[in-house]
Amino acid sequence: MDNKQTVLVLGATGGIGGEMARQLRDAGWKVRAMQRSVPAAGELKDGIHWLRGDAMQQADVLAAAQGCSVIVHAVNPPGYRRWAELVLPMLDNSIAAAKAERATIVLPGTVYNYGPDAFPLLAETAPQQPLTRKGAIRVALEQRLQAASQQGARVLVVRAGDFFGPQAGNSWFAQGLVKPGRAVRSVSNPGRVGVGHQWAYLPDVARSMLALLARRDSLDAFSSFHFGGHWDADGSQMAQAICRVVARRGGVTPRVAAFPWWLMRLAAPFVETLRELQEMRYLWQQPVRLDNAKLVAVLGREPHTALDVAVEATLEGLGCLPVAQVESSLLLNQ
């Protein structure tokens, strides 16, 4: 297989990185993934070639990217910790590899880049004047990618709302709304009543990225797109979908309660992850929506899974649905 179908995925143990790795593999790509804990000689597992390496070590990234036409940069510090120290150096290593291989970097983007001056509807050309430290880092990150796109690399950025999906563990859905591995008794809603919020189902985001990658030769050297996903117009529809799915699968309809921001505020000085999450509260206090008109114009349509179907798959993946009901459903479908 030539290098046009060889890809390196950094962050393949995470939500969007893992989804991209699996979908690229299923689409016929030769997929490499890098992780510090795999054997030195590498390991082929589920059709993905795992290499030993550290995204903070440029030599490791350069070696893993040899012969690759695409680098998916989906690696982030776990739990939002040490962003200022780690995010930009890791990106610089991916940029160095992309320049060496004349490869395309794919970056899953966020709304952190934008501040209230650009709200509520965000086009790709909206001014990037963020309020937060993470937002400023995201802006710097994309500026470095823009520079790299003029020096031999190509760049594809797809910005999306809050991720959810069967394997999106580090997400508001899994860390805020429900508790992984437990039946859903209650849903904790971080948003204000009446305030819209945007959600992105990971398999749909990955499908969009793959479709854009197939057209990368016709795109600008630096191309950014906004993914529409699921728009929760009044901030209650995601919680209601969870309740519907749980009830339909035989559970007791959960109660919906407000997220305990006050408790997070008290604990934030002592827990770095909570401090970082508290910083992003403004995105739950006002409507922020990504305009996907450009993506639709290029692809013809945006991949879209119905909300209840996506929520059911997510809850199953998180181990939040009654086991007996899952087994019954499997028997009925045999």
TrEMBL record:
Protein's recorded name: Nucleoside-diphosphate-sugar epimerase
Domain NAD-dependent epimerase/dehydratase: 7-220
One Pfam family linked to the record: Epimerase
SUPFAM superfamilies: NAD(P)-binding Rossmann-fold domains (SSF51735)
UniProt-listed InterPro entries: Epimerase_deHydtase, NAD(P)-bd_dom_sf, NAD(P)-dependent_oxidoreduct
Organism field: Rhodoferax ferrireducens
